[in-house]
Write a structure and sequence with these properties.
Elements: H1 3-14, H2 18-27, H3 35-51, H4 55-75, H5 80-96, H6 99-119, H7 124-138, H8 142-151, H9 160-173, H10 179-191, H11 195-206, H12 213-225
Length: 226
C-alpha cells in the first residue's frame, strides 16, 4: 500500500466511482492488515448500499461495510477514519436490528464520533455526523424519549443548538462540502423557528447538482420543505 494508491481510491470515491474504489482496494496486497484500507472499504461499501433500492441487498451491504469498519477498529482503535466510519455504519446497522438495538447503540455511536472529532477536529464530515446525531436525538417525541431512558444504560443528550453548532462549524471549514449539510442547516433552523434562515438553506439544498443518492434525497426533501 502506498500513499499514491490510497489517494487514487479517495479520488475514485469522490468521483462517485464506489465500485472502482472497492476493486482497487481489494487488489492491495496488505488490505487485511492495513487500517487505512479497511475503513476505506467500509466507506465505499456503505455508499454502494445507499445506491440500491433492493432492501435485502442494501441490508447485506450495510452489514458487509460494518465488518470492514469493525476490522479497521480492531487494527487501530485510535484511527480517525476507523472511528468515524464505525460510528456511521453502526448507526445504520442498528436500524436493521430493531428499535431496542438502535437505542442500545446510541451511546456507542456518539462515543466513536466524539473520538474521531477529538483526533481530527477540522474534518467537516465528522462534524456533520455529530450534527445529524444531535438533530435526530433532539427531534424524538416524548414516548421515544421515555423508551430511550428505559433501555439505554447511559442515554446521550442533545439539543438543536448543539446540532446547529456542528453544522455551521462544518460549513465554515469547507463550504459546500456535502449537500446534506445544507439540508440539515435548513431543518435545524426550522426546528429553532428561524424560518428565514431555514429557507435560505433549503433553497441551496434544492438547487444541488445530483451526483449520488445523498444528493437526490437532499434535493427531494429540500423541495418538500420549501
Amino acid at each position: 500500500m502506498s500513499a499514491e494508491e490510497l489517494k487514487l481510491t479517495d479520488e475514485l470515491f469522490d468521483d462517485v466511482k464506489y465500485q472502482e474504489a472497492i476493486d482497487l482496494l481489494n487488489q492491495l496486497s496488505d488490505k487485511d492488515s492495513a487500517v487505512e484500507i479497511q475503513w476505506r472499504l467500509a466507506r465505499a461499501v456503505f455508499f454502494v448500499s445507499k445506491q440500491t433500492s433492493n432492501g435485502d441487498e442494501k441490508a447485506q451491504l450495510v452489514r458487509d461495510a460494518f465488518e470492514y469498519a469493525k476490522k479497521a477498529l480492531e487494527l487501530d482503535a485510535n484511527n480517525f477514519g476507523a472511528n468515524k466510519w464505525y460510528g456511521a455504519i453502526l448507526s445504520e446497522k442498528s436500524n436493521l436490528d430493531g428499535v431496542t438495538e438502535r437505542i442500545k447503540q446510541l451511546e456507542n455511536v456518539k462515543k466513536h464520533f466524539t473520538i474521531a472529532k477529538d483526533i481530527n477536529p477540522t474534518d467537516p464530515g465528522i462534524l456533520h455526523m455529530l450534527g445529524q446525531f444531535n438533530f435526530k436525538l433532539s427531534e424524538v417525541n416524548w414516548v421515544t424519549r421515555k423508551l430511550i431512558n428505559s433501555v439505554a444504560p447511559n442515554p446521550p443528550t442533545a439539543s438543536f443548538e448543539e446540532a446547529l453548532e456542528c453544522f455551521e462549524q462544518a460549513e465554515s471549514l469547507k463550504p459546500g462540502f456535502y449537500s446534506q449539510n445544507w439540508l440539515y442547516l435548513g431543518k435545524t433552523f426550522a426546528a429553532l423557528k428561524q424560518h428565514d434562515k431555514a429557507r435560505e438553506w433549503f433553497e441551496k439544498a434544492a438547487a444541488v447538482e445530483v451526483r449520488n443518492e445523498d444528493d437526490r434525497v437532499c434535493r427531494e426533501e429540500a423541495l418538500k420543505q420549501l
